[in-house]
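Fold this complex.
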Amino acid sequence: MNIKDLSSYRDILDKCSHCSFCQSTCPVYTESLLETYVARSRADLIKAVFMDKTMPVTDRVKEIVDRCLLCTNCQQTCPASIPIPELVINARYQIYEGKRLDFSRRLVLKQLMKKRGLKGIWSLAGKVGKKIGMTPEELPDFPPKTFEMLYPPKKYTVKGKPRVRVAYYVGCGTNGMYPDTGVAVMKVLKHNGIEVILPKGMVCCGLPALGEGDINLAKAMMVKNIQILSTLDVDAIITDCTSCGLVLKSKMLSVLDPEDSIYPKAQAVADKIYEVSDYLNKTGLSQKPEPKNWKYSYHVPCHRDWSPDLIDAPLDLLNSADLKEYRALNDPQKCCGAGGSFFTEYKTVAQNIRAPKLEDINNNEAEMLITQCPLCRMYLSHGLPKGKKVIHPIQLLAQAYGF
Amino acid sequence: MKNLAHDLSKLIGDDSVKSEPEDLLAYTSDATHDHAAETPNLVVLPNRVSDVSKVLKFASRYEIPVTPRGAGSGLAGGSTPIQKGIVLDMKRMNAIIEINRGNMTAVVESGVVLGQFHRSVEGQNLFYPPDPQSMSVCTIGGNIATRAGGPRGVKYGTTGNYVLGLEVVLPDGDIINTGGTCVKFSAGYDLTHLFTGAEGTLGVITKANLRLIPLPKCHQTVIVSCVTAEQAATLVSEIIANGIVPAKIEYLTRSAIGLLNQYLTVGLPPEGEAYLFIDLDGEMDQIKKEMKHIKEICSDMAVIEVRVVEDEKESASYWKARSNLYPALVSAMKKIIIEDVTVPRDQLPEFARSISEISRESGLMIDISGHAGDGNFHPTIMLKEINPEIEKIAQEAAEAVIKCALRLGGGISGEHGIGIHKARFSAIQLGDRQIALQQQIKKAIDPLGIMNPGKIWLES
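Structure:
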């Protein structure tokens, strides 16, 4: 299946039994309880409008196509694993031809995706954006130093012979918004005898562009990253972000043409991609912190099904590090409502989706909530009262080590 | 229909009335794989019983057909609008009004999702057993309207056994409360159980009083791999005849297991021709006794494997796989026709034999996986390709399956209801006199015939 070619999805769409099990996990449907927004109806509509062309593209079609978080919950629930989010991306591509955002916003997005390494651009862009009302209030003030300024791209060796060597793909969220995650990852890896290469020239994984239906821009980002990542002599490529992981592990392969010469390289990169806690479980910790009785809960990001052990990975890791006071939320996998830029386009819908999650977190006795996705962290942090803190699981581990 | 939408919006609010074609498309079909459906003129999403009453009054005045709908997960076409009109989506009426421990009852609005209700009552160590396999989405209103059931039917019965009383909006908009919240009720005709199973043809169920029971303390799953289909069927009859009442006895064929292995944490031996998924519940020592007894019966019959599942995660994987069977069958085939017949349990071996006969004669694959413990099977005719000739043979085979169940003393539907999918068989099941009587009842309650028209019987 190629994300640009809707007809390549026809066979898998035929496998939709119309069972409607997707109703159980779609956050947008659950918010309105209108079946139009549930995946089986989206599939029927996209088929009618864009494949069979029996219905025209109307404002209502646009609204239905836009009003999707691309959270992939439908696909995860679907007994036939039908990739509805890819159909939605394709529909946005066909409707907007890469121009879903207005010109200035598009320019900003493009620059941020491409030039995130430029010193201070994030911090500056954040400030300017807030001033002119272009960046949402939910975004925290970006720290003055990006992760790349704190840890410039190069090889970070360890004392003695490294146990393994990994490349660390740092996503935009960690680089610009939450460099503390990246710092924690670097320290934990080093402490456990893992040599880290921070490759030079990395750009955004491409997911924000996919969300805009701008498949060409997403592809440009992916190609650039693959060209660098595929040349590295490493045992694994790790990411701290579950959404970057989703792209690097799987979405990249739906965007690139299998006939394209870059495809085998993309496949080689995908084979090496791990979420950091998942990878640390596989290598095991060589150093263990002192046991701690810190209570923590866990919000599982929606982009969680690209690796079989991913969902429990942070819990398994922290448990193996003697952080045993996990307090489960009632519904750890319920979406936070952020969904890329969704929370800015559908403010009320997103807040309604977030509300039960916040209640769940507030009712939990743990003050610390771990989650790997920087966007979930941002959107949940914004809604939580003081005293509750959202951090990356590796930050909690780093704290246990006393870093 | 613009005016209609406008008028109804004025009555119950803009957000509750949808008339754009993109919205109507979503309400044209349900989970029934093959049937003709019409696009409705309007979708109405009431928030409260007074909304329903206003809509029905309005519909009566203008004689507009009304098709009530839960999750649209039905398998008989019961919630699809075959005469256009209004689809009444009940899912926004989803409050669990009361869970009463002292009386072991609950009061719910009809749009409550069954799975959510399960979680709520089980959190208080209470139990509401009906478990249609679409429970993650299906609504209690839909369950009541179709008398839905599931694997637990063998020990606990189906939805109808748990309904004590209903709030129903009649076609003219009047609201009645039938039955009550007491275990016993003996005043007048049992209207509660007339509306239960009426598939929305007599009125709209808006609220239900449900009976609860204590949550069983323990459960254990055992998977039996059988040499032949007949052996599995005989085993079911033997278990029942020996006085063991498991919570579930599911029968799965080799081809079903082939499709479901992807969902299992531990695969099953491939050489079996049929498999039984059994779940025992209750007190642990009683479960152990029954488990021992089942093992003895299995050993006497020389089955391939008896797997007593100790790990809860593994156990859950079998039941999750089971609930994915229908979608998995659809995914694997070009088209399927699923039936919902029942047979007396002592007739299971004969039924299994007859179905393989029909399969052989028609040259079509027929999977008979189903809730063997309560005699409710879902013979599924699986078509890898479709053309008019094959479809004709398939329809004949479906008819042969149904006639076979009737010949053995069974019925045409155990839990899906009739809808439009089985309407042509109603007369065979019920006979002309009963059909005429049912139609008289329908006429008495819904004289204009606006409620879910075209369902249950063929229009004569």
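Chain B has 15 helices and 20 strands.
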